[in-house]
User: Which sequence fits this backbone?
């Protein structure tokens, strides 16, 4: 198995955990997003810094539950004013792993992932959770008004004085038309 040394802490020994139901294992580490394979689907928006991982794996009678959180930062331009935006977000993690042949593997109502081999690789699940937190269209602030399309002034700083009335040049010939109602 050719796993990067940086991702080895994300492997859980399922056999060791399942030997004693009720046993737990703490997992606290940081991983570089590129090592985890986090590729942003949005140009110019991506994860910055390291992803902080704080998880607890608990062995049950017939499963292993993994719960905790990821903390990460993303950066990109505001979709309205193009200023640089950086936000830190925390994502909850709650996954259930069951051995192969367990009924929950085929039951689509219950969310459970099959344990393949003797180890649980958390990297794919954590990668998916991290990438899903990258916003498709970041905003610096919900009240950001962006730029004036006519003069380019930042409307979040104040009004620019441009006319807000927009006219469609295709209908300009009808501007002088007067309809007599009589």
Assistant:
């Amino acid at each position: 198995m050719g796993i990067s040394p940086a991702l080895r802490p994300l492997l859980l020994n399922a056999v060791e955990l399942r030997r004693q139901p009720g046993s737990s294992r703490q997992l606290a580490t940081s991983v570089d997003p590129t090592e985890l394979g986090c590729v942003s689907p949005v140009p110019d928006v991506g994860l910055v810094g390291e992803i902080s991982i704080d998880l607890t794996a608990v062995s049950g009678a017939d499963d292993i539950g993994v719960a905790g959180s990821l903390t990460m930062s993303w950066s990109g331009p505001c979709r309205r004013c193009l200023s640089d935006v950086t936000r830190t977000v925390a994502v909850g993690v709650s996954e259930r792993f069951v051995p192969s042949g367990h009924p929950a593997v085929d039951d689509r109502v219950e969310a459970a992932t099959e344990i393949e081999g003797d180890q649980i690789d958390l990297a794919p699940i954590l990668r998916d959770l991290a990438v899903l937190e990258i916003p498709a269209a970041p905003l610096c602030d919900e009240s950001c008004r962006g730029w004036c399309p006519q003069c380019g002034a930042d409307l979040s700083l104040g009004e620019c004085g441009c006319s807000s009335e927009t006219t469609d040049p295709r209908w300009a010939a009808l501007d002088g038309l007067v309809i007599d109602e009589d």
Notes: DSSP finds four helices and seven strands in the chain. The mean pLDDT is 87. The two ends are 87 Å apart (CA to CA). The chain has one domain: 5-132.
